[in-house]
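Training component of the fellowship. As part of building independent skills, the fellow (R.M.) carried out the full modelling exercise for a liganded target. The chosen ligand was adenosine-5'-triphosphate. The inputs are recorded below so that the supervisory panel can assess the work.
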Amino acid sequence: MTDTPKIRLRDVRKAFGSKVVLDGVDLDVRARHGMVVLGGSGSGKSVTIKCVLGLIRPDSGLIEIDGRDVSAMTDRQRTEIMDRTGMLFQNGALFDSLPVWENVCFKLLAQKRISRAKARDKAAEILAQVGLAPSVGDLSPAELSGGMQKRVALARAIAAEPDILFLDEPTTGLDPIMGAVIDGLIVDCVKRLGATTVAITHDMASARRIGDDAAMIHKGKIIWNGPAATLGQTGNPMVDQFARGEREGPIQMELRK
Ligand SMILES: Nc1ncnc2c1ncn2[C@@H]1O[C@H](COP(=O)(O)OP(=O)(O)OP(=O)(O)O)[C@@H](O)[C@H]1O
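Fellow's submitted model of the complex:
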C-alpha cells in the first residue's frame, strides 16, 4: 500500500481574468520528503503554493492535505493546518520594527504558546539551530546581513515546529557558500522535525541538495516530476534545458514563436 501524500493536487485550475495561470495542475508531495518546484518566471509556482496555503482560491480542482479536502474543511481545521505550517518568504519578510527574538517567536507569541518572558530564551535556542549567537536576538533585522536575515527567517519558519515547510527561493541573493549553508540547515531541520518541504527555487545546486523529488511547471501544467538528483539528465528536453540553463532548446523555441 502506498502512503497518502502529504499534499495532493488534482486538476487545479486558476485564471486571473482571461489569463489562465494554472491549467490542471496534478502534484503529489510525499510526507517527510522535500519537493522542489521548478519553472520559468511567471509560470505559476507561487500561485500553486498560495492555493495550497489557502491564500488564493482555485477556480476548480482538488487540494488535499493528509488526505483531507481543504475546501471542505472548517475554518478551525484550516487554522490547525496553518498553525503546523511554516513559510520562508523570498525576501525574508522579517518585521523591522521588532527585534530578532520577537521575529523568531512571532507565531508562538501570537498563538500564546509561549510567554514573552520565555520567548527570548526560546529564540536563542532556535537561533543556535541555525548557527546564530544568542546576542543576534537583540538586534533589529535591518542590522543583519542578507545571509543572517535568511537564517533568522528560517529560524522563524521552524520555531513552531512545522509539519509542512514552504520555502520560496531560500537561497536567492546569497553567495554560493552561504546558499549551501542555508540548504544544509534546511535539510537538518527537516530531518529533525520530520517535516515535509515544498521549495520554489531557480538554483539547481540548491534543488538537488534540498529536494528528494522535483516537479516542473510549464504553461500551467506539471510537465515532469521525478527524483531531484536527476535534474539535468531527466531525458525530458524541457526539464533538462531548464536545469542546465541552456539558451537553445524546446523552451527557447517556444519563446520565439
Ligand atoms: N493576484 C493576482 N492577480 C492577477 N494575476 C496574478 C496574481 N498572482 C499571480 N498572477 C499572475 O500569475 C502568473 C504566475 O505568477 P506566479 O507568481 O505564480 O509566478 P512564478 O512562477 O512564481 O514566477 P517567479 O519565478 O517570477 O516568481 C503571473 O503572470 C502573474 O502575473
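The panel noted the following from the submitted structure. The radius of gyration is 19 Å. The chain has ten helices and ten strands.
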